[in-house]
Structures are given as structure tokens and as C-alpha cells.
Amino acid sequence: MKLSAACVVAVDVGSVRTGSFAWAAVDMPGHTLTAHGDDPAGAAGALSAALTDGASAVLALEAPMSVPVPGDWKLLGKGRTGEGNRAWSASAGAGALATGLAQGAWLLAEVARALPGLAATTQVPRWGGAADGGAPLLLVEAFVSGEGKPVPTALGPHAADAEAAARAVAARLAGEDGTDGTDMTCAPQRAFSLLAAQARWAGLALAGDELALDVLVVRARPAG
Description:
alpha/beta
């Protein structure tokens, strides 16, 4: 993983109508909470602002963002390696996937509208700012559940989840959490990257091979 000065914007996917949506922005490498909110427009604005002047940023969606597509139909719906008993296809995961697909597409379309020609990637080695020629926007999946759930703050449990996700992703990219690589993978099955599909639909520049590449999944772990 590479360490880069960047902003990580994490989204706790959920119903906008009922107030279950939240986002938080954390800087790298300082891990300071710089902004938060409960509306998608705010999240898109934070990303767009972070990406100005050749800087780099990360969008982390807390929803299944890659799914395995097996050759054997009997394995359709099987969980990803590393998911344990929380398969992406179970009721909670499937609901978050559907909501995150629409919300992620909307967010990325807003960013693409604000920054025409912006390049994105789901692959960490391809990520970087203008100085090193990488794609400025990195798209990843966050996973906050079970023991990784933070203590709810005064801002509410959804904002706490978003902040925990942002901090976990920042720590992983900076190599500070003692873990390298991804916490979940579609392999050995073929991956269908929903993050890549959203980015291409939104009009961002993204390599075509990423539609079939695993994405980085970061699981938030207990603090302390």
C-alpha cells in the first residue's frame, strides 16, 4: 500500500429518507476528521473539493461493491472469501448492495460533473495524484459490523460508522493497521466490480479491465 496525502470520504449507505445515510471525511496521513454530514450532496462536494488542484482522494462505500460470479451455477450467491457468516447475498448485505449501487452512482456522477475528465480506479497501485500520474480517485469498499462497530457519537450511530470506516481505510492505505491487502475477495471466482461499473456509468475515466478485478475491502476493527 502507498502512503499519500489524500482525503478519505466514507459513506455509511442507508435510507436518505429515514436519516440512515451519513458520511465522514478524514485526512491522510493525519487521520483528522475534517467534515461530516447526512446528505449525499455534502459527500459529493467534499470529494470534489478534495480532488481539486491535482490532489487525490478516496471514496469508501459501506456496502458490498464486488460480487463473485462462479463458473458453476450451484455456487451462485456464495459468500466471498473472508465474509464469514455475513455473505453479501444475505438479506442485510443484499439490501445494502442495492442502496449503495444507486447512491454510489449518484455520488460519482456528481463528482464527474464537477470535474470533467477525472480518472478513477479501484486498484491501489494505479492510484495517485498529478505528481505521479496515477488516477486521483480511488474507490474502495468498507465493512463496519460486529466488533468493529464504534461507540455511537453525539452525531448518531450512522455518522460513527462512517467515521470508523474512513479511519480504517486511511490506516490500511497508510500501512498502519498491520494488515496488507484486502480483507475479502471474490477469488477464486471471477469478480464483478460494482465500483468499476458505477464509475464508468458516471462518466469517469477507468480502465476496462477493472470491471473484472477484485476491489480493496477494508473491515473496521475494534479500537484500542
